[in-house]
Amino acid sequence: MVIVPGFRFSAISAGIRKDGRIDTALAVADANATVAGVFTRNLVRAAPVTLAMDRVRSGTARAVLANSGCANACTGQPGFSAAESSTGAVAGALGIDPQSVLPASTGVIGVVLPAARIVDASQALVQGLSADKSDEFARAILTTDRWPKVASKTLSRAGKSATLLAIGKGAGMIHPDVGPPHATMLVFIFTDAEVEQGELQAALEQASDDTFNSCTVDGDTSTNDTVLAFASGVSGLKLDRAELQPALFEVCDVLARSMVKDGEGSEHMVEIRVSGLPDAGSARSVARTVATSLLVKTAIFGRDANWGRLLAAAGRAGVAFDPNLAAIRIGDAEIVKHGLSTGPAAEARASEILRTPEFTIELSLGSGPGSARYLTSDIGHGYIDVNASYRS
Amino acid sequence: MVIVPGFRFSAISAGIRKDGRIDTALAVADANATVAGVFTRNLVRAAPVTLAMDRVRSGTARAVLANSGCANACTGQPGFSAAESSTGAVAGALGIDPQSVLPASTGVIGVVLPAARIVDASQALVQGLSADKSDEFARAILTTDRWPKVASKTLSRAGKSATLLAIGKGAGMIHPDVGPPHATMLVFIFTDAEVEQGELQAALEQASDDTFNSCTVDGDTSTNDTVLAFASGVSGLKLDRAELQPALFEVCDVLARSMVKDGEGSEHMVEIRVSGLPDAGSARSVARTVATSLLVKTAIFGRDANWGRLLAAAGRAGVAFDPNLAAIRIGDAEIVKHGLSTGPAAEARASEILRTPEFTIELSLGSGPGSARYLTSDIGHGYIDVNASYRS
């Protein structure tokens, strides 16, 4: 368990989840922290997202109040009031400005957050705050996740050191545009480094694009996706964008991989790499189209080296390339060269790789400099079981 | 079984399919017929598609040679030669110009069409030609389809009448941009009406957009999709575009609905209707996004009136609308009004409708004139079974 100086955590069961598991999490900075946020681009935004977007504009915040079990999305004015009253109660118990408490919710859509339960629990939640409870925080925000998602990284310079702690949740519905619905993606990053607000925001946007926005479980994006970063500055170690960016990428990449691995019911985590196109944007379009193709995802589930589906998916991405130059590798097996099968030996090797839990699929589509990567999962019976019965 | 004067049909097992079922189909016009074609927009095009696109340019054709069991896609020059030699052998047996025989193939990708088997079978195929064998033709082109797809319509005027006979196949992978892969969509339309070539082409493109390009099973598009229309003119009934268009729409709509119903392993055929947007293009984007959403499709499989998923999918379509004006109906049950749930009674009624095999889901998103429809299927265990094991 990681300690980040200047932050304390707490988690409790407020009775929002039907199963009685802990469902309400609070993280509090000892003093105003610099804050940055990236939110869902879905037009249909949950009340907590609207409120957090508004409150994050000041550039500082003291706390984040997150709950699982209820997304508080598509709930109109009552939903908005619930987000306000629950954060207000916690602010009251903490003795701080309600505007400095950011809400985040995940769970079923269309049900108003039972704010009274959080109001009732707010004293206990605040009393439970402790520097060593980030793991409980991580567990309280889970929904269909099979495991908590936590990553950390420590940077040192001139005798000072600062930690980045990233806590996330999300398993189903993971897809770009900062992120997923019901099994929404929530990510909270806490650091005791000192970071200028504009740099924190820019670095968070870049890291989100390179990680959370480059992975997919089922192509749907959420009403609730939220990525927040808090910098307390108490370490006295000042990080500029150039120092922060790689560290932020690293912790976000760990969370993104963990989310895709935990793709609802999935059995494989696959990195799709596309290269040889004129520019990165074209490569990204192809990588996304391949990564989200249902036929590709079911072939991966079936451990089938079905390169025809890979090439056909690339061909419908709206990007020009010469199929006769295409090469495809699954792990170290080059199964297609010059647009044609390389024969049964390579395919047999590819089939072995497809039986492993993690591998890469590379599509080389020409000699251009543009490349991109996308993380994806398979879609099989487990996914159907989770998603066909989520509400019932 | 429908007779279209001027056309004869034949079907045979040439040994392309491993299971010994009939796999090669021939339709021949007694004299040059006016022809129009619409083909896959996938960049990766099968050899028969490239050849048929080239040959259809003359505006007339005598025959179509179609096979199941092998898509002859991603097969390079050997695949192209196979398409040429198989159509050449049939042309030879018929004593006609090879350029007037159009090929179409469906089946596994990456395997060269075993043309020698069709060459060997060409005499028997030609000898079997008969005006009353369109049903055998329809059966020979099936792959994962559970049933043949045939629709017909007769138009009469001033004592003359003409028939439109549409024969199609396609179950999985059905999606726009004229069409699907491995379980490719093939559609052949035969009429004894007299139609000017430009009008036949325009009408075919419009009908394809309104039907085949507005339905989806899994969002993937094929390397082999082909829609061809042949007009023999022998009825002496001349049809202009205005007369032809609704009849062509009607037969294509019947085939499109049949294909979606036959979506690989699916249990529901759902018409998504979107209205109230500023224009038809916006409505189509939203309808397509909802129709292709995996979360929507798995909710339909699970008979779950999960309107949050419907609204969230609409919200990520890239189209501006006010979620607070949204209304959603499943069949006759209005489950959302002004962006909010209308309560448990409507939801209970919606759940009943979700247990039926065919229904509509309507999203009304404002007061604009733009509307669109999209046909979709559910994604459940049957789909996974068919697609995870297709090649093995």
Can you put this structure into words, describing what you see?
- Two copies of one chain form a homodimer.
- The model of chain A is unreliable at 173-182 (pLDDT under 50).
- In chain A, helix 2 runs parallel beside helix 3, helix 5 packs parallel to helix 6 and helix 7 (280-292) packs across helix 9.
- The first copy, chain A, has 392 residues and is of the alpha+beta class.
- Chain A contains eleven helices and 15 strands.
- In chain A, the strands form two sheets. In chain A, strands 1, 2, 3, 4, 5, 6, 7 and 9 form an eight-stranded mixed sheet that branches.
- Chain A has helices at 47-56, 76-94, 115-127, 134-140, 197-210, 241-261, 280-292, 294-301, 307-315, 344-354, 381-388, and strands at 7-12, 24-39, 60-67, 101-105, 149-157, 160-169, 186-191, 215-216, 226-231, 269-276, 327-330, 333-337, 340-341, 358-364, 368-377.
- The first copy, chain A, has two domains: 7-261, L-amino peptidase D-ALA esterase/amidase, CATH 3.60.70; 269-388, Roll (Ubiquitin-like (UB roll)), CATH 3.10.20.340.
- Chains A and B meet through helix 8, helix 9, strand 13 and helix 11 of A and helix 8, helix 9, strand 13 and helix 11 of B.
